[in-house]
Amino acid sequence: MNENEEMMFDKNDDYFNDDFLDNQSFFLKGIDNMGWGIKNRLSRIFNPKTGRTVMLAFDHGSILESTTGMDRLETAVLPLIHYADSLMCTRGVVRTIIPPTTRKPVCLRFSAGSTELSELNNDCIINIEDALRLNASALGVTIALGDKHEAKMIENLAVAVDNGYKYSIPVMAVTSVSKQDRDASYYAMVARVSAENGANIVKTYYTEKKFSEIVNKCPVPVIVAGGKKMPEQKSLEFCRRAINDGAAGIDVGRNVFQSSSPLAMIKAISAIVHDNLETDDAYQLFRELSNSIDN
Fold first, then answer.
1. Cα(204)–Cα(221) distance, integer angstroms
2. Which end of the chain is more exposed for a tag (fewer CB within 10 A), N or C?
3. Out of 203, 217, 229, 267, which one is annotated catalytic?
4. What is the pLDDT along the chain (295 residues), one digit of tens a residue?
């Protein structure tokens, strides 16, 4: 391949988008050669029928001041658990509010450290034995590139992956919150570096342009972080576009907890993710469910 051919290849955002599973038996890309335990845990996190997940995230309090809508976690979270495919939270919250009878898989926040009051990303990872005690279905580790703590975060990821392979627990690389505007090429690099270091899932941010580049350059499933609060219709449009562009799921937080009707919102998002509802239909569903719940 000459230089011109390589440049043309890089400009094609859709390469391999439809055929990555042609020679694989497992329903998620990049997982075919993993062990039974990792596949089983990923089959809890992702719906095997759709290959997608709605992940309910409420780990914000580990780095932020209590977030609006999540001041009382038990009243905010517990009514919604049934309607999520998976949960993203810290070990403290698992032990204090999540019923041990729940059958929802937990993606455990596996890294901890500095908060928004300092510089962020100066993290350590928790003991793998505690993740085993909590029956974690995945380990979530923060990663950022170009950060002063870059090497330490990649080391944390590598250690988590080593533990994950040892105990058959998949690892999710969680793209760090950034105070700078980042484009698709940056997030694509974070995703690729994460996967190259062994991550089985990457959670990243949606970009208005070339998001499919992030998905296609990453050899493992990509989940989109829900981000800041938006009006309900705009949030549903955001979810629809992310799924259209190849995301394997949506990580929902503020846009559910801060909605005028959180239960209606998570149901509408799930309908987009698993039933391929278009934005207008999902918003209509949200309004109908909101009215029935309120009445």
1. 11
2. C
3. 203
4. 444 444 444 444 454 455 555 678 999 999 999 999 999 999 999 999 999 999 999 987 767 666 777 778 899 999 999 999 999 999 999 999 999 999 999 999 999 877 767 777 788 899 999 999 999 999 999 999 988 889 999 999 999 999 999 999 999 999 987 666 789 999 999 999 999 999 999 999 999 999 999 999 999 999 999 888 999 999 999 999 999 999 999 999 999 999 999 999 999 999 999 999 999 999 999 999 999 886 5
**Taking Cα atoms as reference points, which of 159, 120, 139 lies closest to residue 42?**
139
Domains of the chain in start order, with CATH, are 21-258 (3.20.20.70)
Q: 39 an active-site residue?
A: no
How far is Cα 273 from Cα 108, in angstroms, rounded to an integer?
22
List of residues 6+ apart from 182 with CB closer than 8 A: 205, 207
